[in-house]
Design a protein that fits this description.
By secondary structure, the protein is an alpha/beta fold. It contains nine helices and 20 strands. Strand 4, helix 2 and strand 5 form a beta-alpha-beta unit.
Length: 477
Amino acid sequence: MLTHRIPAEYRERILTGRKNSWFLGPGGLARLGSRHLGEDGSLTPAAEQRLREQGLFEVPSPRVYSLTVLTSTDCNLGCGYCFQNLGQDSSGGNRPPRIAHSRLSSGTITDILGFADRQMAEVGLEKLHIVFFGGEPLLNPRGCLELLIRAAGHGLDSASMVSNATLLTPALARQLADLGLRDVQVTFDGDQPDHDLIRVRRSGGGTFEQIVENMRAASEASPIRFSIRFNVSHRNRSGVDALIGTLAKRLDPAGCRLHLAWVGDVGVGYANDMRHDTTLAEQLVGWQCRAVEAGFAVRRPGIKSPCSTCSFSDGKYGATVNADGTLSSCWETAGKPGWQVGTAADGYLPADQTAGRWISCGDPGSTSTRTESKPRTPSTTPLTPPSSTTWTRKGGCRRERICDDGRQRIDHFRGLDNRRRSVAQPELRTLPDRSNHLCPRVSNDRVGRDSPRAGHGRRRHQGRCSGDLRIPCHGRI
């Protein structure tokens, strides 16, 4: 099936469904007909040439500079698995020790925007995308609003946010949307009974009802879309079906995208006993199919691609800035002592000073593919940067896929074993065929119902057809 000699983790591949075959490459996805495949299942020379001409074998260069900004390192929740915790609450409560307090100020915003201007000029980018992060970014709503207002003069193209949504009001949603916020990622830890035991307030009490109601009200008051992340573990696995049904009833599925994420121990004593097997793979595919049937959008299949924030040295296409103005290579190290790689005011430190501090997703183009094979020891002292081991992302990163200690990766919406074993795979359920809607060069590719929200419709794109080889278009959704 796989005929091209590039690292297995990022190798293009061919998926066979019930009705069609699909080519997944670094540059996008295309539907194949039977005449484009040889007897061994590999691409014919003509089909491969066509796909190469369309750029599907090459990773596209970023068109927008991606800037992640922590507006507050504080959080009003006490989730036990958070990678910003320094350990578990020794009293058994909901107040685990966290990274140091910091809050975005006007002076730091000035430094951040100057930094972004310099970085964008260096690579010739004119558009800026801001990701609001925390802690909980809405603990500092003024910082969010001021940054958006001032960034308008620095090439701001769009903005998104990772939030627990407990503080998102309709009025604030309208203000943020008017200034360019388009998407908010919100996490659920199962249906209400499980969620309210895991995603708890530091002051005590569950959050499910407040989150759902805030999302519903914000969706009615603004065009903001929601990326719903389901954290899956042995603690909530049995409640995922119920959660999909609950959210489909209470939210507008046409305004939401859904994805599943594995939750594991990042060194703070929060283990996940769920293990990969055929049953789990089938469950994952089934959850995705049920979400589509309920009207939610889900991500298109795809292979790993470089992260613009951490896969390139010295913030070439993106950067992570803490609320105090310090630079980190990725979200997970922001605010952690000993992991700073520079400041927004002065730029990145020399490479010899950041050696061992640059943590990446392990994507192509990265200056480091370190992932830690063993959990970190919980500690309240500054972290010691690694030397040669690797770091496995298992926290809030929206790019992560479900994985098991870096050894096996299951693309959860396909149920495929990425180890490419020669044994036959179980029959898989396939998602609805919507190949005419593909936009492989856009990070938010999705599959979902075609019923747009009132007043906030989505444009449909037609792919270019060569025989029955469907090449996706390269526009925006």
